[in-house]
Amino acid sequence: MSTEKKKMGRPPTDSEPVMIRMQPAMIAAVDEYRRTLEDLPTRPEVIRRILADFLERETSYKP
């Protein structure tokens, strides 16, 4: 039996946090859009999806 304790907190990921400020009207628009989606993603997830879609269209980014 292992006596190691589980580590607390978020598991490690291959990503970096990015903090942005947004006007209340833009946040409201993001929230309104996310409510139209069947899986009701979190606000950060819908922002990731919007950004990924934009980057796929405008650059060579492929997720």
Summarize the structure.
This protein is mainly alpha-helical and 63 residues long. The chain has 2 helices and no strands.
What is the H-and-E element order? Answer: HH
Q: Main beta sheet, described?
A: none
What is the averaged pLDDT score?
A: 90
Outline: extended
The proportion of residues forming helix, as a percent range, comes to 40-55%
Total beta strands: 0
Task: Explain what the structure shows.
With 63 residues, this protein is mostly helical. Helix content is 44%, strand content 0%. The protein has helices at residues 24-35, 43-58.
Defining traits:
63 residues, mainly alpha
Q: Topology of this structure?
A:
Layout: H1 24-35, H2 43-58
